[in-house]
Amino acid sequence: MRHLILTLEAPLMAFGGETVDNYGVTRWFPAASMLAGLLANALGWRRIEHERHQALQDRLIFAARIDRGLAEGGILRDFQTAQLGAKDRAWTSHGRPEGRAGGARTYDAPHLRYRDYLADMRVTVALRFEPEAESPALDNVAHALQRPARPLFIGRKPCLPSTQLFTGFCDADSALAALRAIPVNPDPDQPTVRVLWPDGDGSAGVSASRRHFLTDQRNWASGLHGGGRVVCESELPCNWFGPSTGTPDA
User: Fold this and answer.
1) Model pLDDT for residues 161-174, shown as the tens digit of each residue
2) Which of 54, 61, 89, 111 is spaced 20 to 30 Å from 7 by Cα?
3) Beta carbons of 202 and 63 less than 8 angstroms apart
4) How far apart are CA 24 and CA 225, in angstroms?
5) Angle formed at CA 95 by CA 89 and CA 96, multiple of 5 degrees
6) What is the pLDDT of residues 54-97, one digit of tens each?
């Protein structure tokens, strides 16, 4: 099976998790919804094209690997504050501005929120589409990533990539096997890497240290995260990865 290889690298990235109150946390691995949104943005789709986004997310199968962990700063928490008024209107992804509600006292205090970011990480992703024959194909996505219709970002708009996102294709029997064919840059301080893959899409000889249900799929019509999938995680040696087990053709 043919897989597209993505490199996600930036000074700051955010793989959004479940937001609680005004805290926007981040996961360690990219969400299915984030990758679907990234690819759709490269293709030039509008956010209000719910059915196209949903179909793209539903076809997406991927494994991800943390090639470089957090910098010394760890997770960066951004504290945001804004004084809003009753007549202020906000940009939304629904195709129309959003007004505000609430009584006069609602606007006495500033609006506060927190957003977490991953600092100086690099993550490699191997992804494919099922069914393969539907549109867009991997070739369409690869072309769009190299010549995107709009500026691309990794998770949140300030998170601009610092390297080329598309880094090639790889033929392999599973998403994890495709990742295995891509070498990890040697780092003496990091002899192992964390890997996530879909349950049932692993590789011979690899056991999961953790298997859990991950709610990272969006309902694109409602805008809410209401779906999930079973995934596996493990910590694997860096020398386990290399071209001897796959056919990278970047």
Assistant:
1) 999 999 999 999 99
2) 54
3) no
4) 14
5) 30
6) 999 999 999 999 998 876 667 899 999 988 888 888 777 666 77
Which amino acid makes up residue 185? N
**Residue 61 corresponds to which tokens in the numbers above?**
């199968």
| Lookup: tokens for 36 | 């679907």
User: Which two structure tokens, joined as six digits, stand for 109?
Assistant: 């205090």
In this structure, is the dihedral angle defined by the CA atoms of residues 239, 241, 246 and 249, taken in order, positive or negative? Answer: negative
- In this structure, what token pair is assigned to residue 239? 């020398």
Q: What's the token pair of residue 204? A: 């011979």
**Range 142-167 burial, b when 16+ CB lie within 10 A, else e:** bebbeebeeebbbbbeebebeeebbb
Q: How many CB atoms lie within 10 A of CB 44?
A: 10
* Dihedral sign (CA 190, 154, 60, 219): positive
